[in-house]
Amino acid sequence: MNMQFLVDGLVAGSMIGLGAIGVTLTYSILRFANFAHGDLMAWGTYSALMLLGLLSAQFGETDPIGPFSFGWPLIAAGAFAMLLTGLLALAVDAMLFARLRARGQAIIVVMASFGASMTLRSLLEFIVTSRPRYFSRDIQMALPIGPGVSATPDQIALLALTGLLVLGTHVLMQRTRIGRAMRATSQNPALARVSGIDVASVVRVTWLIGGALACVAGMMIGILVQIRPLMGLDLLLPLFAAAILGGIGSIGGAVVGGLIIGLAEAACVQWVGAEWRAAVAFVILIAVLMLRPSGLFGVAGQ
Known about the structure:
73% of the residues lie in helices and 2% in strands. It is mostly helical. The protein has a single domain (4-135, 142-291), classed as ABC transporter involved in vitamin B12 uptake, BtuC, CATH 1.10.3470. A two-stranded antiparallel ribbon has the order 1-2. The radius of gyration is 19 Å and the shape is globular.
């Protein structure tokens, strides 16, 4: 039996899981589904691409690191792009979502996120056009890592990066003051405010974390596949399916949900057909909503 779909599914699932963390944090703390989150992934990826171009123009082309397709300029560009994407998320919230949240009507905020999504996507497509772009056009050879299973160095590196980022986010949420404040706000915003928690700071940190991780997830797609203005839209349904499957508010659950979605899609491609891949996330989402709305690690009634 060909087990290559396991690696493909884990890689795809790690991208989905990182993006789903921002979705689950936004929903649990701000109480609305942000449909513009996928477009933050695209903006973050193009920001990294443009920063990489500036660094290359300033310092010249550099050799890749070891067996990987990327070098230190992309790592530096990615770090700065994470900050820029977080700031973009903050800006969208300040200009749009915060004003609407003050009115107390969640459905208006949700509908506004649809408009923000279309605006961000159309503006990006206008600026960069719809032509696909790449961080590198070098072709990597897959390395055997087990019977019937192989992976490229980039795939292995990005899986390791996902693990580090998820661990770092978990430590932030569990061991730091702002993390405890975020968890308290998620459980009861009114009580958290009465208890002296600066809810405004919690909201800002939520957007920064969600935007930064969305940028990394988008860059992973750009490194392994290609960069397109619609890349975030294509992942929007899997992102929400992963967040709901894992349980709203659970960072580990979002990652596990992403891995399950990724593996299910890869298995579908191998055993059923690539044309059915897009339906996998939808089927899983509907099944979870019908059988276990709280998700695998969520709290019932949240």
